[in-house]
């Protein structure tokens, strides 16, 4: 999986069917490899024995690199939403609904997006760099030669850890974001604490939170799989690892926003909204 | 006891460019073979193909009755347990101590108790002279130590086939000599089939039973050590004697004009240097696969260069027999 021209432009240009077909097939080959890797990783998730130790280590590691940035990003996020809505709701005389709008914005969208950014940027890049370094030091080859499948051994625990931490992180981001919005609304904008809290249920509902957590789960899986794939296919020495990390973050961001859109669209189709 | 590896018509290319084509050779059971070649001729690629890390375009690799490139993934992992591989930089797991690195295959593949594992690991670490370094991380030790630890890990499951990817790259001459001695001693003790990929001619001249030479995208020659060391074939001769005169140029092979110019200038190849004696195991007993010095030459009516097989030859002084009996690596 890659942004830009196919891995091997020369082969593409020399293809039997001409350069156009060549570019198409060479480009598709990369995606084919990525999907094959995804299937292997999925199969690895269910292979016994599950690598519990690696999973715990990775979960600990991912949470240690992502909790603080996630919390720090979500405070201003909540505040900005309150700021944007504050003046608008005042103009139309719906101040008491600031809380409702704030909660729905954070739980439905901001939470999963912040989670996605942090998981891709902090956890994904770390996973990619780690596996990439192992790849170029031939550790992964050595592992295969010792009869151990690196996908089962290294990728599966990372994917599960990343999924779990993304779900938990989403919860954290929701709480911190709503708290940030509350603080900002009550202290800076002169909102009423009671009105802010009481309107929580006005627009939002429990399925919003569930949908947010499902998104976070998917984001965690995608970030870990893309990062692992880019890391395990890194080549060309230390520079190759750097390139792989860069591409992994960019690709993950794009994928996460696309997936976010799709999941949101499905959610609105499937779950009836309040007041509709 | 080792296993024979039979390679037939193996071809590998990257992005349309062949790395090498139609390589056929047999690594005889229990013997030490060396695969030589100028830098960038795909020696490491060959080694990785041999263990199934890379898929060849064509050809077979027979290990007893199984054809490695056509095995299912599960069978491939099964067959790989016959192999021990020493990678270029040791390829140790950076997050584990040396002890855990060496114990790793045992913990994964056997049901041995921790005390059994301890005794096996300390035996292997002693064999490579790393006793006392068990608690160190790979990042804290020198390249030579990493290599030796990688060797200990490769040996821990008692493999039938042991592959060495440039065991001498990045090592000083003394450590290279120790490592070569260790390789010979290991072959004596385990009777496994050895393949060493290298471009160090000193190793190639003194350690193996067989030599192969990869050059210009094909296998130029593969056969008994004495056959290649007494060969008049230009490429083999040039490479094994590290000369500038011959078909191998600085960038790639020389073109016809250059070769003609060389011939016209009357550059004469120096006479073949004498064949050095093979490095014996350090306990003085012969290896099972060892053949008497000069046997191949006698059988094939080849007169070896004068001075061959004399001990303590000046050109290979660092591998002379006299230096070998006080090595600390003797395990038996």
Report on this model:
Chain B: GO terms for molecular function: ATP binding; ATP hydrolysis activity. The complex is a heterodimer of chains A (276) and B (332). Chain A has 276 residues and is mainly alpha-helical. Chain A folds into two domains: 46 residues; 221 residues, no CATH class. Chain A contains ten helices and no strands. The radius of gyration of chain A is 22 Å and the shape is elongated. With 332 residues, chain B is of the alpha/beta class. Chain B has a single domain, classed as Rossmann fold (3-Layer(aba) Sandwich). Chain B is built from eleven helices and ten strands. In chain B, helix 3 crosses helix 4, helix 3 packs parallel to helix 5 and helix 4 packs across helix 5. The longest helix of chain B has 18 residues. The interface between A and B is medium-sized, with 18 and 25 residues.
Fill in the keyword field for this structure.
heterodimer; A: 276 residues; mainly alpha; 2 domains; 0% strand; elongated; disordered N terminus; B: 332 residues; alpha/beta; Rossmann fold; 6-stranded mixed beta sheet; 4-stranded antiparallel beta sheet; 10 strands; disordered C terminus; transmembrane (chain A); ABC transporter permease (chain A); Permease_MalE (chain A); phospholipid transporter activity (chain A); transmembrane helix (chain A)
Provide the succession of SSEs of chain A.
HHHHHHHHHH
DSSP helix fraction of chain A: over 70%
Rounded to the nearest angstrom, the radius of gyration of chain B is: 20 Å
The assigned structural class of chain A equals mainly alpha
Task: Estimate the helix proportion of chain B, in percent.
Answer: 25-40%
CATH class of chain B: Alpha Beta
Describe the oligomeric state of these chains in a short phrase: heterodimer
Specify the structural class of chain B. Answer: alpha/beta
Distance separating the two termini of chain B: 17 Å
Largest sheet of chain B: 6 strands, mixed
How much β-strand is present in the residues of chain A? Answer: under 5%
Please give the most extensive interface between any two protein chains, plus how many residues each contributes: A-B, 18 and 25 residues
Indicate the overall shape of chain A: elongated
